[in-house]
Amino acid sequence: MRAAVLSQPGRIRIDEVAVPEPGLGQVRVRLEGCGVCASNLTPWKGPEWMQFPTEPGALGHEGWGVVDAVGSGIDTVSVGDRVAALSFKAYAEYDIAAADAVVPLPAALEGRAFPGEPLGCAMNIFRRSAIEPGQTVAIIGIGFLGALLTRLATDAGARVIAISRRPYSLDVARQMGAAETIAMEDHHAIIEQVKALTAGQFCDRVIEAVGKQWPLDLAGELVREGGRLVVAGYHQDGLRHVNMQLWNWRGIDVINAHERDPKAYIRGIEEAVQAVASGRLDPDPLYTHRYPLEQLVEALNATRDRPDGFLKALVIFP
Question: 237 pLDDT exceeds 90?
Answer without folding.
Answer: no
